[in-house]
Amino acid sequence: MGSENTQTFLRPRARLMSTLGEKLISNERVALTELVKNAYDADASLVVIRFNGPLEEGYGSIEVWDDGHGTSPDTVRDTWMEIATPFRHRAPRSEQFGRSVLGAKGIGRFSAARLGAVTAIKSRKAGRPEVNIRLDWSDFAAENAYLDLVPVQWSVGATEVFADDGQARRLFDEVTSAFRVSEKRPAWTGSHGTLVRLEGLWQDWGAESVESLKRTLSRLLHLLWNWTYPTSRSSRFISPFRLGRWTTTLVLSGPAKLWHTRTIAS
To answer: What are 132-163's pLDDT values in tens digits?
Structure first.
């Protein structure tokens, strides 16, 4: 009796998302650093990380704001929704400043899964509508769910957060007025950027955890500085850190082609 050749297809379970997050991202500090790398790849010259208390497991939130070029609806649909997209292999340089991109593996979304129960994203490309994405990671944890059957909620709506007089503009004006940043940082109109909000934290964030994150980000900035300015002896990192009861802010800033000047907390 002859054998019969048949074909079938690999079909990932939805929990692959959390499995990859656990295997690819070693801890929450690395996860946040990956989100900062995404902002760098988006040509951001300013990143604000806000910790909103209570910073206890199951509560609080972390927000990562950047003034990069933002995301359009087309990019969300055709690139962001694809796992392991070859987009960065085809475009290894950032679109505005020509930076060598750091997030070539597409693991930023897995980083978000490592940090909190829900990821809410608002992003806007200049001249385009604002995009909203919301992922509840518990949707991917069902034992019998397949990845291609778990819906991701996203929408295109009126520009609010990244409007010229929106929340992003007010936040960036606040932090740049509170801290003297590089004079080379280009003026930001408020019309573009990205906010990633991580809700329902998976772990407690105390003073020691945030201080450890600050050291990790400082090493990242030092590495970026040395890649571009290998003869420089210092990337001039600064200053004291204090963990507030409800809100803590870390600020990273630098000139257009490179971050190097400050990792600041207040």
So the answer is: 999 999 999 888 899 999 999 999 999 999 99
Can you tell me the distance from the alpha carbon of 11 to that of 1, in angstroms, rounded to the nearest whole number?
A: 31
C-beta separation of 76 from 109 below 8 A: no
For the segment 94-108, what is each residue's pLDDT rounded down to a tens digit? 888 888 888 656 667
Backbone angles phi, psi at 60, to 5 degrees: 65, 180
Q: For residue 60, give both structure tokens.
A: 């609080």
Q: In whole angstroms, how far apart are CA 160 and each of 30, 43, 165, 226?
A: 30, 21, 9, 38
Q: Read off the pTM.
A: 0.84
Angle at 80 between CA 76 and CA 81, to 5 degrees: 95
Q: What's the CA gap between 170 and 196, in Å, rounded?
A: 17
Other C-beta atoms closer than 10 Å to the C-beta of 201 total 23
**φ, ψ for residue 188 (rounded to 5)?**
-110, 130
C-alpha torsion angle, residues 239, 244, 246, 250 (rounded to 10): 10
